[in-house]
Amino acid sequence: MGTTVAVYDTKPYDRVSLTSVEGAESINWRFLDFRLGVDTAHAASGAQVVCVFVNDDADRAVLEGLSGLGVRLLALRCTGFNKVNLTAAQELGLSVTRVPNYSPYSVAEHTIALILALNRKLHRAFNRVRELNFSLTGLEGFDLHGKTAGIFGTGKIGRIVAEILKGFGMRVLAYDPYASTDWAAQHGVIYADRATLARESDVLSLHVPLTPETRHMVRRETLDRMKPGAILVNVSRGQLIDTSALIQALKSRRLGGVALDVYEEEEGVFFEDLSGEVLEDDVLARLLTFPNVLITAHQAFLTREALKDIARVTVENVRRLAAGQPFLEETLL
Questions:
Q1: 284 partner at 20 to 30 Å CA-CA among 12, 90, 291, 317?
Q2: pTM of the model
Q3: Homologous superfamily of 104-295 in CATH?
Q4: What is the per-residue pLDDT across 25-50, written as a single tens digit (0 to 9) for each?
């Protein structure tokens, strides 16, 4: 028969990518449109593997339910794992894997797209032209060339963003507790402390994982320190930014603009079509009223190459489970 995999929070592109890679034909796929949670864990009955995405809930109660159903592997088709209780998984003997490295260019290039679109107000210009308003008033941006970019986090994605911005002729500062000094020397990137990045950057971009230490790393003090007119970009995790403090900074007109691909309370909103409904999240609704805020719904990862990488790693770990082989070492949590 083959291994049965219950895939939660499935979107059309998940079905295509997961079933298209080599080895997928030997797997019994059970695609579920809803998220994993305590009320939906029972849908994994008969499955040996549960495959989840970034906003699925895998707390202790959920994992206990999955373990009781005979699930042996929780396979995350994403990098972040902050919603998984790893301690409970270990106690229950439930293996957990993720996809730590899918195309870093997907997220890095989306970061650049957000910076350019926000700075040159392309989102506003697009809407104007569709209404036959060809006025240029209020659409001024600034040259990136000669300005300073600050990169929080110099993992693969942060390094690529830094290199692209160097190509624009920007001075690039970086902060990371584990500095890549050889890379920085090669590309002319200067490591500095967090306060210096906030104070000197015209563009400040976040590329760090969500941990207890990084939660709300951008808060009122950080925003107060930022250069007037600076752009803030977050494509990593929504909770890196204190959204209430961000709104106050926007209301004070201190920030030049904010581009977000993630949001603190995105669960239940992002990835869904709510166009015919009332948005119940008042904070997100307030953010959407600012003309200098550009939001995309967690789509930075969404390229063909990244989806293929995610599917390939997921399928390989399912194959290894069935064969009694060790999981890909770098994916095991």
A1: 12
A2: 0.90
A3: NAD(P)-binding Rossmann-like Domain (3.40.50.720)
A4: 999 999 999 999 999 999 999 999 99
